[in-house]
Amino acid sequence: MKQFITSIVILTLAMPVFSWNNHAGITYLILKDHWKNQQTPKVKVESLKSFLSKEKSSIQDTLTISEEWSLKQLPHLTKTADSLKFSKTTKDADLVISFYKALRVNPNHKAALYIQSVPKRTGNKLPLAELTTLKEKGKLVNETFLALQEGQMIGADEVLISATDEPDYDLDLYLFEDNGSEVGKVYGFGNQPFGNPAVEFSSQAPFHMGFYYEPGLIFALAGFLKKTYPEYRIHQFTELSNLAFRTGHPYWGYRFAGWALHYIQDLTQPYHSSVLPRVSAAKQIGVQLVSFVGYQSPKEDMIRFVSGRHTLIEEYQYYLIRNLIETKNWNHSVASSITEFSNHNSTKWQGIDFLRENVCKEAYNAGEPTDEQLENLEIPKYETLYEPTHPIHTILGSLLHNTSKHTRAYLDALKTN
């Protein structure tokens, strides 16, 4: 039994942890006509420190409400240590870091005033070093970020587009005890349950994935898969968004909402709601057992094939969405799947209590057919964009339609006043 659990741990270390690589681009397409029947709201840019300074007395009450909900929903979640809790007596110089520690996020996150330029345009560029602490910048080097000034007026759509990408910049890095950080020792999350704690981007995996529908046998043998935290983040940032709107800080209302949407969008990705789609519990156990007697290739093949399809769909999505925006190809089937909605194919946001039933179950159920269809394409990795009629667009369009549907539902339910 111990060998099996160890083997499952090794297997999950090899899992890719990226989700949608282009949250900003996807959200741009979603918002392209979201306010078509009214003028897009304009908001005044405000620093995080300014917001915190003005709402000191309400911040901890809001975080307490969120933690009470999260502790009931997530049995594995520990209480925030009293020493980390935000206080209305906090000195202005310490506000931002105190706030981050109360949230139990990376205290080095910068929360710069910026927008991600989608589509690209000219302006005062913000260096990546002022946006993220990531050592490996990945695809961020392809993007353009423009600096904003406090007091400047900006469209709510631009705030949301930028904010949906932001949690991937470092917000959830190094939060576990075995990540080698000081906060990992005091945040109370324990050792990283899955993903590779030695790999920078992988250290955020349990906050961006949610496994709720795996077979009972898998959970019985690998209970650590239950230790995921996206709901914790969604609730925190939704409550903060509500507070910001309620107290007259619409910039942070939309920005916190964008942060919450990042995790919701992640959970619409089948490979973030299912450990190994189309690999039954029996097969997972079988490949582990034969590996014990020296036959490693079945397990290695299983991981390689599933990881390859996971990586393929996310790589392809990134470059396709960029191309559709750059060429304004709104008639492409994938663009249409994101932008075209009617009453019969929309949904209502029923609250975070129903996230697992409405968002995660849909993504989990899409895992097996998606994985099978991708396998049948026989595309080993992303190399080029295909013609509009290629079947990969049907697969991707179906997945991103769900992402768009739940994003729209969340935005329609925002309490903006």
Automatic annotation (TrEMBL):
Source taxonomy: Bacteria, Pseudomonadati, Spirochaetota, Spirochaetia, Leptospirales
Domain of life, source organism: Bacteria
Descriptive protein name: Phospholipase
One term of GO molecular function: hydrolase activity, acting on ester bonds
